[in-house]
Amino acid sequence: MKEESRKGQNTELRKPNNMRGKKKVKRIFPPDPVYNNITVAKFINQVMRQGKKELARKIVYRAFDIIKTKTQRDPLEVFNFALENASPILEVKPKRIGGATYQVPREVKKERRLTLAIRWIIQAAKSKKGKPMKEKLAEELISASKNEGAAIKKKEDTHRMAEANRAFAHFTW
Length: 173
What we know:
Structural class: mainly alpha
CATH architecture: Orthogonal Bundle
CATH class: Mainly Alpha
Strand order of the largest sheet: 1-2
Radius of gyration: 20 Å
CATH topology: Ribosomal Protein S7
Distance between the termini: 38 Å
Strand content: 5-15%
């Protein structure tokens, strides 16, 4: 059966470009409506739970308002500093070699750095108790922009683990 004769099937997605199957399609996010920033839109999507995007937007925008009142600086600037400070440069990935599993240090790609930084900041904010999420998120973003806080500690722990396993760096694939 020829590729052209298949009707109703998207042959573009079905052709494997390598032996492992389809290539992952990179999704393009529209920027958020208030700050017109794609990174803020991704952050809102990570805060969102059970599809309640409007609630997630309110939490993030109110956290940005709190940041503006507490620091007297542009909240987008504080947000970008926080993400930059919380993004890891190295991480460890397990690799099985000859019956043993080694933690092999690897450099983190730019996309994954952003994802990890966002995830760690949100997890750090969620782990705090006794305050509304907007206040916890604002505090974590402010502390991360000053190179302190739980998200920064997580990054430092990751770097420390990668440094400790530097002897296995030759197993990188």
